[in-house]
Design brief:
The chain is 40% helix and 13% strand. With 453 residues, the protein is an alpha/beta fold. Helix 3 runs antiparallel to helix 12, helix 4 packs parallel to helix 12 and helix 8 packs parallel to helix 9. It is globular and about 65 Å long.
């Protein structure tokens, strides 16, 4: 078993084995890795194993994990109930062309908890969940257009990507943001079907929907978009979004792939949003690949084929595979209302501790987030949308210095300082995060940054 350790002191890191594996990877993978999101310090840390709140890399370095595979592992690593359930299942078959009872059990759990879900369709990733939610909205309405929030991340579907990677040199007028394609070679017609709004911009919602509502299938909204700042939604913004969607006959699609972890009933219920469709993923797979589209039964009927060819065909060789279904059910059953409350209490402790350190020193930082999520911004004023949160080069540099400082204190803080907690973490772990940040504010790099503000 990995034991928690004193992470109060700086220490050198051995990286010889990680260098070895990275050199091997560079011979077979583009840039040496298989995900663009893999961070390097200056090479990736190759993980040997994880247990609870900690990971151990191939060089024997141990870290408190604030990434948890991009918020997926709500119970941390090696959660024993999931491990035991999956181990028992492996001997009886991992995937079939026929359905199993396991998919029904997980679907029933989601429908019981999440108010917006009456019917469910399982897929293999969050990207697929968002993609099929958009397709379902198109099939139901017969329209092609999408309205989405600037800077929010919704996976790798062309229409979901447009507008997620905007920058000051090309994001367009603030009243009418451009739908910037995510990659070179994106068909120009994609941008024609995507209208971009700014988060928490009430007037912008009403204006854009008046322009494009008649040809729009859905409004795609993450209630608290992580990549766009992990900023709390304003109640009047969500109300305006919902009212405009209803007025123009547009479906409301909530992307809760990440933010389902905000409460027992998800993020939409937490903030008073009533979506027609919800895209889920990450925590509902218990550490295995998963995605789900859920929503009103009449909208979800576009997937039905009992009366002939469906309006929206959807397959997937590994969709609803027993391993993901069992792991997801067990993980979610362990996330009782009490467990969610406990995790939120830990999150409140971290966020308030970080803010206290900022207030005490007057450092030019701010904190956003909710429940088990937090983000540290190198800005005096917490941002209200993607544009106000967009980092300057100096802010990117101090974020890198912050992550590196945490790394050498035994904590994996993602570059960009958007982080999450798990049920495996303790008050000791939470205090270590706060103490490490407080100590960082006294470093020459932080003081130089403060002097430049």
């Amino acid at each position: 078993m990995l034991h928690t350790r004193d992470i109060s002191g700086d220490r050198p890191l051995s990286r010889a084995r990680s260098h070895h594996f990275f050199n091997r990877g560079r011979k077979i993978f583009p840039s040496g890795v298989t995900r663009v999101t893999v961070e390097r310090q200056p090479v990736p840390l190759y993980i040997a194993r994880g247990e609870g709140a900690y990971v151990l890399d191939v060089d024997g370095n141990r870290f408190l994990d604030l990434n948890n595979n991009f918020t997926t592992l709500i119970h941390g690593h090696g959660f024993l109930p999931v491990a035991d359930a999956v181990a028992d299942l492996l001997h009886r078959g991992t995937c079939f062309s026929n359905p199993t009872e396991h998919e029904i059990a997980l679907a029933e759990l989601l429908a019981e908890r999440i108010p917006a879900i009456e019917h469910v369709r399982f897929v293999n990733s969050g990207t697929e969940a968002v993609m099929f939610a958009i397709k379902a909205a198109r099939a139901f309405t017969g329209r092609t257009g999408i309205v989405r929030v600037e800077g929010a991340y919704h996976g790798a579907y062309d229409w979901a990507e447009a507008g997620q990677s905007s920058s000051p040199t090309r994001w367009g007028d603030g009243s009418r943001p451009d739908a910037i394609p995510a990659y070179r070679g994106t068909p120009p017609s994609v941008a024609d079907d995507v209208a971009v709004i700014r988060f928490n911009d009430v007037e912008g919602v009403e204006r854009r929907m008046a322009d494009v509502g008649a040809r729009t299938a859905c409004v795609l909204i993450d209630p608290m978009p992580s990549r766009a700042g992990l900023i709390e939604p304003k109640a009047d913004f969500l109300q305006a979004l919902q009212a405009a969607a209803r007025k123009h006959g547009v479906l409301l699609v909530a992307d809760e792939v990440l933010n389902l972890r905000q409460s027992y009933r998800g993020a939409s219920a937490r903030y008073g949003l009533e979506p027609d469709l919800i895209a889920c993923g990450k925590i509902i797979g218990g550490g295995f690949p998963v995605g789900a589209v859920g929503g009103r039964a009449n909208v979800m009927s576009v997937f039905a084929n009992d009366k002939g060819k469906p309006l929206l065909p959807q397959g997937g060789t590994f969709s609803a595979n027993p391993v993901s279904m069992v792991a997801g059910r067990v993980a979610m059953e362990a996330m009782t209302e009490e467990a969610f409350h406990g995790l939120e209490h830990l999150g409140d402790h971290v966020r308030s501790g970080l803010q206290d350190a900022i207030d005490r020193t007057g450092a030019p930082f701010s904190v956003s987030g909710a429940a088990s999520l937090f983000r540290i911004h190198p800005k005096k004023q917490a941002p209200s949308d993607y544009r106000s949160g967009y980092p300057t080069q100096a802010e990117n540099d101090i974020n890198t210095a912050l992550s590196d400082y945490f790394l050498h204190r035994g904590i994996l803080l993602p570059n960009g300082a958007a982080a999450c907690l798990s049920t495996a973490m303790t008050a000791y772990d939470a205090d270590a995060v706060v103490t490490t940040f407080s100590d960082f504010l006294s470093t020459p790099a932080a003081q130089e940054f403060e002097a430049s503000r």
